[in-house]
């Protein structure tokens, strides 16, 4: 199940809701080199500003 994430658009501050898939995340700072950074592109519904969300 995906976790909802709500952030404010940096251009117009409209709340933007995205979903981030469940994953292991980072367990410690040693995990960073082995983890795969993933991303998701989306646009604000109000002003069209493109947002890029990155997660482990």
UniProtKB/TrEMBL annotation:
Protein name: Small CPxCG-related zinc finger protein
Organism name: Halovivax ruber (strain DSM 18193 / JCM 13892 / XH-70)
């Amino acid at each position: 199940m995906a976790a909802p994430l709500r952030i404010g658009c940096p251009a117009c501050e409209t709340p933007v809701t995205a979903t981030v898939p469940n994953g292991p995340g980072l367990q410690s700072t040693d995990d960073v080199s082995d983890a795969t950074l993933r991303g998701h592109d989306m646009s604000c519904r109000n002003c069209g500003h493109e947002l890029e969300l990155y997660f482990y």
